[in-house]
Amino acid sequence: ALTAGIVGLPNVGKSTLFNAITKAGALAANYPFATIEPNVGSVTVPDERLDKLTELVVPKKTVPTTFEFTDIAGIVKGASTGEGLGNKFLAHIREVDAICQVVRCFEDENITHVSGTVNPIDDIEVINLELILADMESVDKRIARVAKMAKQKDKEAMVEEPILQKLKDVLEAEKPARAADLSDDEKKVIKGLHLLTIKPMLYVANVSEDEVADPSENKYVKMVQEYAAAEGAQVITVCAKIEEEISELEDDEKKEFLAELGIAESGLDQLIKASYSLLGLATYFTAGVQEVRAWTFRKGMKAPQCAGIIHSDFERGFIRAETVAYTDLVEYGSKPAAKEAGRVRAEGKEYVVQDGDVLEFLFNV
Ligand code: GDP
């Protein structure tokens, strides 16, 4: 499964946010087969469409889809040169598929800031620079090898060398590898390098309790938003403390609590949704009277692969997928009604599944 890693300097609120994630997850954990590492938190992906489908179908049970966050504590200045436990943390970041960088945007005299004052841009740059330096080392090492092979007219090396050079230029300008604008084919060539800064990143601005309802008033959040916009990255504003407090509440209580604070949607829910889409994930549904369920797939996956997410037999014996878009199903109120209106399609092996598709797989056993 794909996972998003939570990084940030000490004392920015990572553990608080991660506690909220694990508590919310513990409450929702209804799959007994997963063995979860202590630093991995599983959350259910909030999706209003699942509630609506449950209303329409009235199944015995409803199962949301889940998503994982990995807590990567402990990055500090100098991590790329092995300071502290630096390299170990970088190795953990290598294993995640997207990065959520928590940035301290709250003031609190009682909580020390590692560099003395709250300055989110300095903080972001400390972390980003460590990641860039680590990548530079990987790229330099690789260039040294590949250049030799390219001289001996090794075909693959001759393809790889200019890509590495492109990356080197970007990293030397202290920009992340994702700014190098590589084509999908070029990315494939350098995949084995497992670069840190090629992973998609979003920023999580952690604000204080009294600012979360209107974060636009917070000057630090503004700074982060400007910085992120220049990179084309997204910013989610949360109050980690509030998220931790409400993580054990039932949905209804949670909504009430948030409404009292003037918050439309919990920051954690926004973070889950944003990370999910950052990873290129989407959701399809199965909707029978036994069970209405959401399933995670990668955008671009075809119907047989999506069937394989449920069971490998479904993929092996795939015949076709009866497909209706969620919006059509809701509009017509039931699958037979949608069918009558010609909205239920029989899709074959080449069908690229869309977010919100409600599917029924037909397969040979
Ligand atoms: P970490 O080192 O990044 O994991 O940071 P922690 O989650 O341990 O938080 C450091 C301190 O900041 C703790 O005392 C938290 O209670 C406090 N803290 C975290 N989030 C907030 C917040 O949103 N508002 C305020 N006022 N304090 C917070």
From TrEMBL:
CDD domains: TGS_YchF_OLA1 (cd04867), YchF (cd01900). The keyword Metal-binding applies. Residues 2-258 form the OBG-type G domain. ATP binds at residues 11-16. Pfam families: MMR_HSR1, YchF-GTPase_C. Residues 280-363 form the TGS domain. Keywords: ATP-binding, Magnesium, Metal-binding, Nucleotide-binding. Its cofactor is Mg(2+). Belongs to the TRAFAC class OBG-HflX-like GTPase superfamily. OBG GTPase family. YchF/OLA1 subfamily. ATPase that binds to both the 70S ribosome and the 50S ribosomal subunit in a nucleotide-independent manner. This is Ribosome-binding ATPase YchF. It comes from Solibacillus kalamii.
